[in-house]
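Work through this protein:
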Amino acid sequence: MADYKDRYYTSSDGLRLHYRDYDAAGTGDCVETVLCMPGLTRNARDFTEVADHLKGRYRVLVAEQRGRGLSAWDPNPANYHPGTYIGDMFTLLADAGVARVHAVGTSLGGLMTMIISSMKPGFFKSATLNDIGPVIDQVGIERIKGYVGKITPARDWAEAIQRVKAMAVDVYPDFTDAEWDSFTRKIFVEKDGQPILDYDPNIALPFKNATSDAAPSDIWPAFESLKGTPLAVLRGGLSDLLSAETMEEMGRRHEGMVAVTIPNVGHTPILNEPECLAAIDAVIAKGR
């Protein structure tokens, strides 16, 4: 039996969206709640290890954005953008009966964390940004554009693993066979006996059509809205989205920021690394 509940809520535009609820001994604000927000193509399974680490001590809500996992696909691909996702997160939290949370955001989820904080300073009790910052390197964006939505269904799991490995071997050069298997099963889901991507390929359309000029010209004010909020920033040592220089500047602008770099890992750390889990623990403890 799963140690979480699959919960569903209706978005403002009528979509049935999903989140996992690892409910601690209580609900609402009587327990500390952690909101986990995945990356662009990702789903709730990315946070299995984090949730397993935190459950029992905290209530853990793991979002699945529209078009991913068990959440409905949007018939209008133009809605696949951070502004829509942020609105969905407020609706999710209202459904869960929670007013303020600790945030753990990977990539897109971390970008959303910064933007939400700028909209509502003090909304987050603590924040962990996984391999994302106010400066997003274009090299990484182009790499992601090169694969998002393009992976076709595989004949079997062995083929799916080989495809993922070919795509990401430079990101995770030290992965074992077991880790490649686990990672692949977070990306694909089996349907009619065939592994398929667990997201709507159309999530790629707004992202691919965007140019560097279309990106927010200055995300630093959004990042600086997190001043006073306990903050951890996690970075893959091989990351092509978050540079070491940007991470250093983030530390200069946010006194007390916990900075963790995972060597020989690209974008993004998996969040099963002991150093990452320790950093998440530390900032949540500060923000309680």
Remarks:
- Residues 82-96 form the longest helix (15 residues).
- The mean pLDDT is 93.
